[in-house]
Write a structure and sequence with these properties.
The complex is a heterodimer of chains A (about 375) and B (about 260). Chain A is built from 17 helices and eight strands. Chain A has about 375 residues and is α/β, with parallel strands linked by helices. Chain A has a single domain, classed as 3-Layer(aba) Sandwich (Rossmann fold). The N and C termini of chain A lie far apart (about 40 Å). In chain A, about 50% of the residues are buried. Chain B is of the alpha/beta class and about 260 residues long. Chain B has a domain of about 100 residues: ATPase, nucleotide binding domain (Nucleotidyltransferase, domain 5), CATH 3.30.420.40. A five-stranded mixed β-sheet of chain B has the order 3-2-1-4-5. The chains are: A alpha/beta (about 375), B alpha/beta (about 260). Chains A and B meet through helix 17 of A and helix 2 and strand 8 of B.
Chain lengths: ~375, ~260
């Protein structure tokens, strides 16, 4: 596949992908394809894909419906949960509206209680995600994956055959590999493109329903970036920042903007929009494919796990591979698990990796843009 | 050639002007007022009246109003400036800087004259100058008077971290007939405890603790800060100008670099 358009145009297109997919989801429904909505990186997409369903991420990213959500939920709750619940309740999110079922996991306390309330007005399938990653936890998680498969078979009156599932695994692995090949262009120093542009593609691509086209498209974009880089087109040399922490998208993109507007460049995302979602593959050749799927998903390094070694393994690896000068952690206010884990991340980054670290706590409002800019600018001045 | 630093904070705007030998030849403080643009203009006029030709100077602006200084050649954050300013004032390259500002309190770790790490208060005015100002107002005192009174008080605590709730606590203490010095003591304790908890988030290191910002001349605050941090806290009357001095030093570096080119 050859990318004919210019890169800025490609980036812009991905920035608009979420909105454009509002129409696509309606079309899919009209074609009779079921839609499974999900909120989390732990959601085993392959099961839904093998059931012939389209999958879509439902995490809301604006403060538009937070007021409505606060009628039912406490104010001092994470904005992602409040906003997601608000969009669901007010039926303002087309993806939610068209989802036949919403899959939740028992990740953090806020989310699992929110799903309880959400199930009052929507079909919610709640998977019991363990908060440890040992052998017993894996057994439980595998049984949950199988329970989810049986639920979908019943719900959509279809059979999820081993063959279909293995196909889905292969496709999803191809997507992961291609996303990785794309974000790996940022290993170049100086960086070939802005982190914000890369982010637009990472985020936008999750709203593409036709997964088959993603691998070729990502590889083509990566190739084009590489070619232009080889021809001398690149960003200025600037401090290289890795962003970690809570999921970023919509309102919280202000953190990426603050880094790049104040003289830094984001070269890596160790969060759910970035490497956390794509780094690990499912073992395609495993004898027991359910076991392989369960293993892959349970190993996601989210702060809901205690302890959470995989996050530090990935973080450490990325700091090296992407030649990171400083780590910025973004946490959402009232996200207890990530906020608590900042202490450990700070220690890891400063004492083991010997580079500066800062954490910023924010929400979906615009009121702290000034404060964010001052903190992040000061951090960059320090590097 | 002059190097000027302008620090437009939420409460006060500070000016520091240095000559080519990095000697402080002019310093000035005024309330920021409601418009930082007007404040920047009035500082401009003041410099002019003191014979400082801006054509012949490099100007760096800092503080939350730094973008409102149209004649600045460059803007730098107040964290970097306070760090540099403290190094210059105290001639200490390694240590900790605590700046209790109007709306922000910053704790900065310096190593070899560079900012190594810093923390700031989040969306909350506990432990800031504003907190002190509000409490002083409700007791019909100036912030300086409150600090002076606090030294002779004791026995009372304010538990609310929120400025609004803490103010109603103060008002009910007044209503109960509590002595003014005891309430002042409680207010000072509350601020310093919050600052200490902020400072404890930074790793401890060598060197003294320098208190800068509007409270630097408050001996009592400096004393209890030292007791709670278990180390000596140094301060200087110039500490109020640390941000502006740091900005002037940045202007000097910037000017030299430009000239070098």
């Amino acid at each position: 596949m050859e990318i004919i358009k210019d890169l800025p145009e490609v980036f812009q297109e991905f920035a608009e992908q979420r909105r454009n997919s509002f129409l696509a989801v309606k079309k899919i429904k009209e074609e009779g394809i079921p839609v499974v909505g999900a909120y989390c990186t732990y959601f085993p997409q392959e099961i839904a894909m093998a059931a012939g369903a389209a999958t879509v991420g439902l995490c809301s990213t604006s403060d538009e419906t937070i007021g409505e959500a606060e009628k039912d939920l406490p104010r001092n709750l994470c904005p992602l949960i409040k906003s997601s619940y608000g969009f669901a309740k007010t039926d303002k999110c087309p993806f939610f509206y068209f989802s036949d079922v919403v899959v939740g996991e028992t990740t953090c306390d806020g989310k699992k209680k929110m799903y309880e309330y959400m199930s009052e007005f929507k079909d919610v399938f709640l998977m019991e995600l363990p908060n440890t990653q040992g052998e017993e936890a894996l057994k439980l998680w595998k049984s949950e994956v199988i329970r989810f498969k049986e639920y979908l078979e019943e719900k959509f009156q279809t059979e999820i055959t081993e063959e279909k599932l293995r196909e889905a695994v292969k496709l999803q692995n191809a997507v992961r590999r291609s996303m990785k090949s794309l974000y790996q262009v940022m290993k170049h120093d100086p960086a070939p493109v802005k982190g914000y542009d890369l982010f637009k593609v990472l985020y936008g691509s999750t709203f593409k329903f036709n997964k088959e086209v993603i691998p070729a498209e990502m590889e083509a974009i990566a190739k084009k970036i590489e070619e232009e880089y080889a021809a001398g087109k690149m960003e200025e040399k600037r401090p290289r920042i890795l962003i970690t922490g809570c999921p970023i998208g919509g309102a919280t993109e202000k953190v990426i903007a603050a880094v790049e507007d104040n003289g830094g460049i984001v070269t890596a995302f160790e969060n759910c929009t970035g490497a956390k979602t794509y780094d690990r593959l499912v073992d395609e050749d495993a004898e027991d494919i359910y076991q392989a799927i369960a293993e892959r998903y349970l190993s996601v390094g989210c702060s809901v796990m205690a302890p959470n070694p995989n996050r530090f393994e990935l973080l450490g690896r990325m700091i090296e591979e992407y030649k990171i000068d400083g780590v910025v952690e973004m946490t959402l206010s009232a996200c207890h698990t990530y906020n608590l884990e900042t202490r450990k991340v700070r220690k890891f980054v400063t004492e083991e990796k010997h580079i500066p670290y800062m954490s910023v706590e924010t929400d979906y409002s615009r009121e702290d843009i000034g404060q964010l800019n001052t903190r992040i600018a000061a951090f960059l001045e320090m590097l | 050639m002059y190097f000027t630093g302008i620090d437009i904070g939420s409460t006060c705007a500070k000016l520091a002007v240095m000559d080519e030998e990095k000697r402080l030849i002019l310093k000035h403080v005024q309330p920021t007022g409601w418009s930082s643009v007007d404040t920047a203009a009035s500082i401009y006029d003041r410099m002019k009246s003191r014979g400082i030709d801006l054509e012949e100077s490099v100007c760096v602006a800092t503080g939350y109003g730094r973008i409102s200084v149209p004649y600045a050649d460059k803007t730098v954050t107040e964290i970097t400036c306070h760090g540099k300013g403290a190094v210059w004032i105290h001639d200490c390259k390694t240590g900790m800087v605590i700046d209790i500002g109007g709306q922000d309190t910053k704790v900065i770790r310096l190593e070899n004259g560079q900012v190594k790490d810093f923390v700031m208060n989040d969306k909350c005015s506990a432990g800031t100058g504003r907190f002190l100002e509000v409490m002083a107002n409700s007791m019909a005192l100036s912030p300086d008077q409150l600090c002076a009174l606090a030294a002779s008080g004791g026995g009372v605590t304010i538990s609310s971290m929120c400025t609004v709730f803490a103010e109603s606590e103060v008002i009910s203490l007044i209503g109960r007939g509590e002595k003014r010095e005891n309430i002042a003591y409680a207010v000072a304790e509350s601020i310093v405890n919050k600052v200490v908890s902020l400072a404890s988030r930074l790793s401890t290191g060598e060197g003294p603790v320098c208190l800068t910002g509007g409270l630097c001349e408050c001996d009592y605050i400096r004393k209890i800060l030292g007791e709670k941090l278990r180390c000596g806290v140094i301060a200087s009357p110039e500490g109020r100008y640390a941000g502006a001095i740091g900005a002037a030093l940045t202007a000097a570096e910037y000017g030299m670099r430009k000239r070098g080119k």
